[in-house]
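[Automated response] Your request has been received and processed.

Submitted sequence:
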Amino acid sequence: MSCTSRFASDFISRHRKLTACAAALILVALIALPSLGIASSQEVEKLNRFIEQSGQTDKAMQLFSEARELIDDDDWSAAERAFRKFIDSYPKHKNVDAALYYIALSLKKQEKLEQADRAIDRLLSEYPRSSWADDAKNLRVEIAAQSGNGQVLEQELNKDDLETRIIALQSLFHHNPERGAQIVADIFKPDSKSHRRLKEAALSLLAQHSGKQAVEALLNIARNEKDARLRKTAVFWLGQTGDERALDALKDMARSDDTEISRMAIAALGQHSGPRALAFLSETARTATTVRARKEAIFWLSQAGGEAAIDELLKIYDSDTNAEIRKQIIFAFGQSKSARASAKLVEIARAGDDESRKTAIFWLGQRHDGQSDDLLVELYDSEKNEAIKRQIMFSLGQKGSKKALRKLFDIAKSDPSTSMRKQAIFWIGQSKDPEAVKFLEDILK
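Generated structure:
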């Protein structure tokens, strides 16, 4: 037997459980040996060590994967033991830092918070450049919040990492809202260089966790913050507090020359459900200096719902002659489920000025009920104004109901106006109803 064959036989007998990859490497090495002469015992020993390391790597990854599966199964105690075994068995493995993170996570889930913190300390001290370092820092913040360690949270708030600072602030508010509010006051000091994202998160946390204490802080930010986007954000959160103290300030802001602040303040008033907020919206809808502000107030007044809002809209419609304002109120009536709003919509469709009638007829066409079908048919039959009749046909074409479609058939066949007949055929052509298809086919015969 040749030297090479003996070496091969020796390797095969000693390493029967080699992976395919390792076996292939052995084969390449053995093939190369004859070109080097008879292999020395030192070379054979090197090859043995390589094979043993390959086997260890495979076993290490198998053990790591099994431990990771325990994390996926939420078996935290078993996962902790498995990752400790991995580190003990393979202390130099490239995934030791990941194993330390998962040990910390498993301990946190078991509420062994001090031990979890020690695992994070080891990870960050031994592997400061680990890709798991940021996750570990965020986990430390969560642990500090869970244990009530406000000192750690405030330390993390002074770090440079933005995401960690946001998580720390969130955890601090959860543990101690009063202290969180104090930190927010510092973040918004005139000389603060805090990142906008941190400030936006601070506003949200302040509004959601500080209750009535948040109102004055939010008002101060809404009035004095230099960043317009942050001022608007503060105004938005004032609307979410539901606090009556915010209403007077929001009323003043609604009349601001700053269009964006005005818009946000009107929307914020719309988030309040009390009678004072409704009165402020109504006053803005009647008397604001710009049509834009009036229209936005009308929109939010309509969203407030209830018959009190309908009362205000009816009064404004009857007393105001501005076409844009009336159009906005008709839109509100078209969206409302109030019987009185519906009745007013019908009244306008019958007897309003031409532009108001067209708008009301359009919104009747958006309703899917037999009553509006009947009304549109009746309106068409009694109407003399051709422009209004075209609007009625448009609304009939939008309905999609059998009654509306058959009225279009009737117009197409017998209306005295050629123009109206052509218009009806056009809208019939937009329908996918089989009756519409047959009607058009019959015309072509």
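Summary generated for your ticket: Confidence is low (pLDDT under 50) at residues 1-40, 46-54. Residues 41-72 form the longest helix (32 residues).
If you did not submit this request, please reply to this message.
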